[in-house]
Amino acid sequence: MYILWLRQIKRYSRSRSRIVGSLGQPLLFLVALGFGFGPVFEKAGGGNYVQFLAPGIIAMSILFTAMFSGVEIIWDRQFGFLKETLVAPVPRLHIMIGRTLGSATVAFLQGIVVFLIAMVVGFRPDQWALLPVTLLTMFLLALLFTAFGTALASLMEDFHGFQLIMNFLVMPLFFLSGALFPLEDLPPLLDVLTRIDPLTYGIDALRGSLIGMGHYPLVLDMGILTLLVVALMITGSWLFSRIEV
Amino acid sequence: MTEQTTQNAIIEAKELTKKFGTLTAVDNVSFSVKAGEIFAFLGPNGAGKTTTIKMLTTLLHPTSGEIQLNGFDPRYQQDAVRKSFGIVFQDPSLDDELTAWENLELHGVLYGVPKGLRRERMGQLLRIVELEDRRNDQVKHFSGGMRRRLEIARGLLHHPKILFLDEPTIGLDPQTRNHLWSYVMGLNRTEGITVFLTTHYMEEAEKVAGRIAVIDHGKIVALGTSAELKTQTGQPTLEDAFLALTGSAIREEEAGALDQLRMHRRIMGRK
Lengths: 245, 271
Prior knowledge:
The complex is a heterodimer. By secondary structure, chain A is an all-alpha fold. Helices cover 80% and strands 0% of the residues of chain A. Chain A has one domain (2-241).
């Protein structure tokens, strides 16, 4: 399992364009939205928008990286490498876990980097004591969406589904998660949607642990995330074990 | 078609069938390969060569029929079967982003080859396939022939009893092909490795393989040594014998998802 973990890390560290690309977007969001909406947000009594936005953007970068790495199985499938791992005398479950942990580590590190970028832009966590909770949340988010991506990718033969996932899954997950807006006093429909979106709880846990602005109790957030991670890991492993090439 | 059931058969297929929906890719195929033999599958595109190999190597589940590989059943004893063979796939299966060395290392670890032995063999194999000086280069900078050679080295790293070669020489120049076959034949002689290969090149099959099975529309239409096939059809060369057996109509193979993706990737400029 370790070797597959290592492979994911190496692959990532070698694709510089991907690293730069995936850091540019959060930075843009932070600067453009953070400072653009800042004055309005403040006038509405919401406080400093960069403070509010940063946890959402950290979660966003984890979401994107994790989903992308999970879906990378399609690449492996198309370029044949998947076959090499599938004929190896290693249980599929180990292969799945190894690569999921690898991709999740990558997504987690990405989240850390965005965290640091946010600090440069002006984000200041209020409470450092809960940092372990923050980090745990970030890792859970990374695992959650990597497993999700893996599960989806196991179902897909080729690449065409990828755009579909980006547009109809990843984007809604992000925009309906409360990454950009507070969860208080939402219209009923949006309120329901945010409650369904798992990312909501991740972002809420980040806000709760970093700036003490959680909407739900921290325990609830973490509980939901953990449950989802377990459920998706099981589903993902099952789907992955059924792959035929 | 000769029915052979020998005591020392290392690969055995009985009435093997694979259906994809309404398409029968492999239709009631039976054959057996003796330990230490070089056995070739010849057939036009879409004849069922790769599907058969995939079933033998645990990648596909047969619709019906019996298979045995090194005494194990690929359907149920997957790990034992997987340890018994090495394979060079028809399509490339290396990780482009990793170096030659790392690709081998990953394979060795997955197959549980102990570290000392692994390193020793990796060095050896890279020397044999003449990639020693490129061991720390990423595979994406390799030519087709170099990739092929690396894949063969990788397939041999865990010292398999059986080596599957699915059209291993496609797209290679004559020098590399020649080199590759003499290496494979050497291995077969010195290590007694059983080789199961498929190819489109008649002269290769004739030169390398002990017995040849001609497969068409998922069925084995002839099986025997190259000389036997020629006598059976009354043709002077294996190529003529092949055409006599399979007809001369050109087979259409649907452009696979892979081709589409390659196009896609080129357009998107990934890598």
